[in-house]
Amino acid sequence: MLSQGELAKHLASTKLTVIPSKKEPFGIIVVEGPCYGSPVVATNVGGIPEVIALATEKLSPNEKENFNRWVKLVEPNISSIKNGIDLITKNGASIEEYLLLVSKIRSQFHWPLRLNKYQSVIESKIYFC
To answer: How far is CA 67 from CA 9, 91, 92, 95, in A?
Structure first.
């Protein structure tokens, strides 16, 4: 098991993070990859699309286009995952532009921000069954 610091160092130096989940309720690693500058190929299941949408919420259209060069949502099968890996590794873009997005991506996942959002849902008395 890696400490948070070791995980951050590892993700910051990886060339690619692949999340081949068939089910994924939230996908914290999907948050951690882009927050540390790792390109990501993740399956389009469970909460992963929601996490990706949240990561890009504050990005401009041009920044989203750049983000999409380095983060791919794919179907949960071998050929789709391989295609996602190929699209990232052969995109010809400079990763430096992606790394410039890290602070904006991170800002979407500060725990106080997330907790305030959850608190507002609870206080609005919206109940899910």
So the answer is: 21, 12, 14, 10
